[in-house]
Design goal:
membrane; two-stranded antiparallel ribbon; six-stranded mixed β-sheet; 8 strands; STAS_dom; about 60% helix; Transcription Regulator spoIIAA; SLC26A/SulP_dom; alpha/beta; 2 domains
Amino acid sequence: MTFIKELIYGSSIKNEILSGITVAIALVPEAIAFSFIAGVDPLIGLYAACIMGFFTSLLGGRPGMISGATGAIAVVVAATVQTYGEAYLYPTIILGGLIQMAVGALRLGKFIRLVPHSVMLGFVNGLAIVIFMAQFPMFGSDASGVFACYSGTKLFTISALVALTIVIMVVLPRFTKAIPSALVAILVIAGLSFVPGIETPTVFNLLKGKSMQGGLPSVFTDYPADLFSMATLKIILLPAISVAGVGLIESLLTLTIIDERTDTRGSGNRESLAQGVANCISGAFGSMGGCAMIGQSMININSGARGRLSGLVAAITLLMFIMFLSPVIEMIPVAALIGVMFMVAYGTFEWSSIKNIKKTPKDDFLIMIIVAVVTVVFHNLALAVAIGVVLSALAFAWDHATGIHARIRKDENGIKHYDIHGPLFFGSTTAFGEIFDAKSDEDKVIIDFESSRVVDQSGIEAIRKLNDKYQEVGKEISFVNLSKGCKDILATAKIDISIDPDKRKFMVVYDA
């Protein structure tokens, strides 16, 4: 019953179907382009879009999100295909899918919450720029599919059609949202392409003059003869881990972004399982696998779709295109698809990150820029996110390393108290040690951790060293209000210090 509700999920059947058809059309050029990057036949990328889209929409944790063949996965598998051949691509995708299923089964999808907002903004902005830049090579292609920028009348024609596509997508929603503006724009530009004197490249040119029509793919074909050997495992293991990691990072970040845009909440663990299942099936049917696609997901969401039906319709429609309607798709002008993707890039970019630059902490803004630049330069989303997370962690550690301090007081018995404020961890141990001077301090000292927390082993070691310094000069030092975990670690390590000797309330006499 829940699945039936999720088919349209607050949308309408009409919106879901029309949006799914629009997404299917938008999937075509990217699936073809990413096939070229991976070094495989375009049909392999198109089948990947069908399989990934269908099973993630059916089983995934984020209704309305679209998956398919992606550039991130294409870049990862390209080296394997080039070095060892296409036969090793499919077991790589299957193994990557199994790893993703394990992540979902172990409920590790929640770790996406560790990605800071600044990193997420950098990822989104960088991906928007990548989508935008990826359209420029399509401004020129001859019948053989060789990209070479047009000039003169041809350049003016394709540019004008791209501009008209953008105008339709901007203006039409102000009058009606009954039909997705992207679909209307594609149909209008396709109609104009038949007007005498208007010559513009079509999807057929992207296919290098080869028809995209084909039958259903076969299962477990063209696999290496030594599939179940250690030699094959050594070849596919690292690429499979990369496929799993890159796919999950892109999918879970896209899920989080769609959550924010729709004010709903998806399931990262369920999505991880679905991505794994889809990749296993994709590899079994001889296609290149994939993950969530932020561009097509934004087309889907902006077209009014919110449920699973749109993704299912997109996958089935694309399969019908391949099997029966490929001549129709091949006639779609590239200009229309470029215009649609330009608008996707514009809608994907978080413009608020630029508008609110004065309100954003400098560290966060710098990290956002670095993540975006790495995404654009290397087209490696996993690397960009990893760098962003590390930089954010270092910035956090630095801020808290300088934040530890002590409030000093004396009681009526002349015992000196240090009330520690701020976390004690590897970054703050130096500042913590500089608070004390064992030689010139009082004979009895109490260190109070009620407003502090010992975070790691470095903090434990800092406590031990401080205890030793005071004992060496014959002075008494005690530690109070340590957490239970900290006490347990001290006991396990057999560190002999005085813990919580007396928790009586003293009259406070502040140091001058």
